[in-house]
Design goal:
The protein has 65 residues and is mainly α. It has two helices and no strands.
């Protein structure tokens, strides 16, 4: 395992402090990004459903998403 940690070159030849100081910031940032992507996906699915209803490709009660 140590060989994998140090096989990235001379810049990675020292152990990384555990846990990294900014891990909580990174996790929070990723959680916010995931939530934003979920919101965007939900909005896109609503638009697709409206377009399908408008074109008559499915009825209002066929909620498959």
């Amino acid at each position: 395992m140590l060989k994998r940690l140090f096989s990235q070159g001379p810049q990675a030849s020292y152990p990384v402090p555990y846990p990294p100081q900014n891990i909580y910031f990174d996790i929070n940032r990723y959680q916010n990004e995931i939530n934003e992507l979920k919101r965007m996906n939900s909005e896109m699915l609503k638009r697709i459903a409206r377009i399908e209803n408008y074109l008559g490709l499915r009825k209002d009660n066929e909620n498959i998403y």
